[in-house]
Amino acid sequence: MPLAKPWSSTAFRLALTYGVLLVLTMSIVLSVFYVQTVGVLRARMDRQAENHLRRLVEHSELYGDAALEAEIQQTLIDGVNTDTEILILTHASGVPIIGNAEVVPARRLTDLGVRDLKVRRNGRLIAGRVAVARLPDGKLLAVGSDMQAQSDVEDLFGRASLIAGLVALGMAVLGAAAFRRVVEERAADIRSTMARVATGDLRQRIPVTRRDDEFTLLNRDINAMLDRLELLMDGIRHVSNTIAHNLRTPLTRILLRLRNAQQASAEEKNETLALVAEEVAELGVVFDKLLQIAEVESGASRKNFASVDLRALLVDVVEFYEPLVEDAGGVLRLDVEGAPMALGDGDLLASAVANLVDNAIKYGCLPGSVHGADMLLRAGVAHEHGIDGGAWGVEIIVQDQGPGVDEQTREKMCTRFYRAESQRQGYGLGLASVLAIVQLHGGRLSFENTRPGLLARIWLPCLPAA
Q1: If we measure between CA atoms, which residue out of 315, 466, 297, 328 comes closest to residue 396?
Q2: pTM to 2 decimal places
Q3: Beta strand pairing call for 332-336 and 375-384
Q4: pLDDT tens digits, one per residue of 109-119
Q5: CB count, 10 Å around CB of 43?
Q6: Rounded distance between C-alpha atoms, residue 35 and residue 198, angstroms
Q7: Could you tell me which residues are beta bridge partners of residue 444?
Q8: Dihedral angle at the C-alpha atoms of 69, 70, 73, 78, nearest 10 degrees?
Q9: Could you tell me which residues come within 8 angstroms of residue 392 by beta carbon, excluding any fewer than 6 positions away?
Q10: Torsion angle in degrees (nearest 10) through CA of 382, 385, 389, 390
Q11: How far apart are CA 245 and CA 250, in angstroms?
Q12: How far apart are CA 118 and CA 103, in angstroms?
């Protein structure tokens, strides 16, 4: 549902605020430019008036009053700045002698430097800016310019600035509305997809464009989250179905044995109770493993993360499993390059490696196998491709000499309760536990047929620099 009011949109408010700030900045710049421009023009007019006044005063001092009046008369008819210049010569009392303007209202001038002055010129009342000087004989001489052109420039600049400000403000509003519409269109896909996901359709995904903008990256992240969520929900459904299936048979068997024990002798009852106890103990093991996986997936163990010496960890694993491999007629070899370190929970990582070794012993070290029973446990620095262009880390490899696995089996190996050979003992939770531990540490788990044998690889990120 689109937002009813534009102001309720964060995108609209941000864009409009940014536009208003731009308009305000433009207004400040124009104001400074206006003040500077007007100031420069006024200063230039003042200098021109003072220079002209000084020249006329000097001319009067050199040649007398008659020459001054003649010079003023010549200046008024020389055609240079005739339309804008102001020249007024008055007696000390303020009575005009010669000039092209009259002071309004008529009064005696004072020699206070350059100032604004109302005058009547060619029958028109105008604002002038003049410089006034007192001659030795007491007469007053005013020289200046008509300010009408200056006023016209100021008015034109003011109107242009106002129009520019209004246009910029309008563009800011329209831009904010357009920006809001673009954001709404991009966000509509997210909202509609999330609404369908909320109804239970976890297969929905947000369309992703080829543009690598912020929304595309966000859509990819949300799709990745939905992929993970769908995978977890499928896992939960699978686990629920598998638990129900796996529990039904032993529970039914326990129930039947208990019912039969009601009619049996004391000795048979004791045997039945012993069998029932074994069945219940096996169920307890299954639930313990499931709880361990759930605890790992919750991420609670991250608070125990510390620097882990993988060499020491693998030495402990080899010491524990070496007798079992030798009993199978093989040799467990350890090859560690350098001093690989990782950040994590040492007990969990040891459990993951132990599960891989146990799995390799169970399926790879077959007595009498033509491939032999030798195993290799290796660790060192490795580069992992496909993670933001690649990343360096450490790897742990467990490699056996068994028959390997087919492609279909390899895809299901880490699925909970999956067992490649159902006749063998086990619960199908070992590799699922390994995957959960590796993902908790931000790593990757992979399997590869080496013909002969199967290679299991754990990749973990490098220990962060201190």
Answers
A1: 315
A2: 0.51
A3: parallel
A4: 887 778 888 88
A5: 11
A6: 61
A7: 459
A8: -140
A9: 381, 382, 383, 384, 462
A10: -10
A11: 10
A12: 6
